[in-house]
Every structure is written in C-alpha cells, then in structure tokens.
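In this section we walk through a basic example: taking a raw amino acid sequence and producing a predicted 3D structure, encoded as discrete structure tokens. The instruction is simple. Fold the sequence below.
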Amino acid sequence: MEGEEVLSTKHASGSPKKPRKGRTSVPTAKGQVSLQAIHQIKEVGKQTHLRATKTRETYSRHIRQARSWLQSHFPVEGTPQILARTEDESDVYGDPGFKSAFVQVPNQCSDKALALYLSWRGFQENCSQSTIDGIRAAFKILWDEADSAIFRGDWHHNDARNRWEGNPVLSAEVSDIVASIRHKVSSQGAERTHSGAMKKEYMDRILAWSESQCSLQIPFQYVRLTMMGFQVLPPGEFLGKNVKLKITRHLQHLACGATAFTLWTRNYELVKLKRRDIYLDKTAVDGVFMKYLQGEEQSLTINDLNVYFEIHLKNRKGWQRKLDKGMKEADL
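The resulting token sequence is shown next.
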C-alpha cells in the first residue's frame, strides 16, 4: 500500500501542467482611441496609400490650376467679368455659386464651370489628351470623395430632395466636351504621325524611274519565254546573275508599290502579308498575264477582264486581334 501511494504520488507530481489561458485584455476607457481619431487615421491612410505620390501631386496641381483660372474671372467681390451672351445661354455665369464651382462639394454650376475650363485647355491652349484626361480624373476623384457617396454616379437633380447629386464630371456637357477634344486631338495626330496617302503623280514618278533603270520589256521578255516553256534561253540570250538580281528587285518593288497604291494600304502592312492572306486563281491570272505579255490585251474577254485576286487585310493591327479575342472570350 505504501508503495502504491508513493507511485501514485510520483505520477501525480510528474504529470505535465496545462498552460493557463491568458485573459483577453479589454481596453479601458482611458486608453481607448476615439472614433473621431480612428476616422482621421482612416482618411490619412486612404489619402497616403490609395494612390501613388506622384499621382496625388499631379491631381492636386490640376485642381489648383483650375481654381486659380476660375478665380481670375472674378476680380472684384465675386462679380464675374462681362461675358458675351447668346440667346441659348442661361444665366449660369451670373450665378453666385459659379465662383465656388470647384470646391470640395460641387454645386449646381460645377458641371458648366468644368466644361468651360476643359474647353479652354483643350481648344484654346491645345493641351494634350493626357492633360485633359488628368484634369477630368482629378475632379472626378475630388467629388467622388466628397460628402460620403452623394456625389458619385451620373450628375442629376434630385427633385424629391431639391438638390444636385452625382458627379459633375459624368454630366452630359462635360462628357461631350471631353469627346470633342479627343476627336480634335485624334484628327490632328493623324495628320502629324501618319503617312500621307500616295498620289497618282507620285506613283507615275516611281514607274518612270523604274523604267529608266530597268525597262519592263527586259523582264517581260524573259517571263514570256519562261511561260512559253523555254527551259533554256535561245541562242544569243544571256541572263547573268547581276541582271537577274536587278530584274527581281525591280519587279518586287513595282509589284509591292502598285498593289499598295491599288489597295490604298500602307507598305509596311503589305510586306507582312502571308500566303494565307492572298486568294487567287493562278491559272486564270496567268492566262490574262500572258495576253498582256504577247500584246493581245485587245482580245481580252469580259471574263478575262473580271479576273482578280483577293488580299485580306483584316486584323492586321495588334489591338484589333486583341479586341476580337477578348470579345470571343467574353461571349464564351
């Protein structure tokens, strides 16, 4: 019995002790952060980390410039400078709220004021599209974050509450101005950056130069002999390596230039074509070509004159292929 008591005592003393669960500390009223302070922390964190520093600085600069521009039209005690009026124009420019159209909380004049400012920057100062988009984005964010979510969504008048709601950036007038500026920039950009269309007189000059360097009668003669089945040139006819190279280059140049002129497409798109992009009946085309080579173009029939080949230029641009691919994936 004594031995059993000793064993039971040792077993009890040797058993591992279970760790005590720590108590969850409850913040006291003295050390608790107020809701107002937490709200401030939230706003600071959002302003600091929601967007990159450079983006915030750019948007802030756009807002400052717009406000400065608007205030420059109110030199004396909030009275706007005299503006030429039209019959269609309302009295919005004389509205006392027009001076405060670019503040944190928009008013009934904000969309009209922003449309004027964008028009000035886009049409008068000829700012780039990226600048216009930056101004638009800056004001959209400014008013999206104003007064909870009242100024998000389409700009409209709430008749029940007798107030304006939504974002003035999404108003019809601002959207029309932005679209107009985009069209203006795009049309001017096309004139500056795109290749000019090939005129017929330019094509004639190219053909005349090629004829002076390598008359078409020379390659046509050899093509005619080849198509007639001559494996070896007749006696006295010789076609050296340099002559072959010169003729080949001129024929390729003329074929590419004439085809590009006929299709009204860019040469860099034409040279990237693949065999699958060209559809032609070789027998029919060769038959018509032979009549031209033999000087028998007067004998061409109506069917001969209707012989053609197809070149498909669809989706030659990368963005078109990506767009089509995206549409197919969306349809699935």
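Looking at the output, two observations stand out. Confidence is low (pLDDT under 50) at residues 4-10, 82-88, 327-332. Residues 241-263 form the longest helix (23 residues). In the next section we compare this with other chains.
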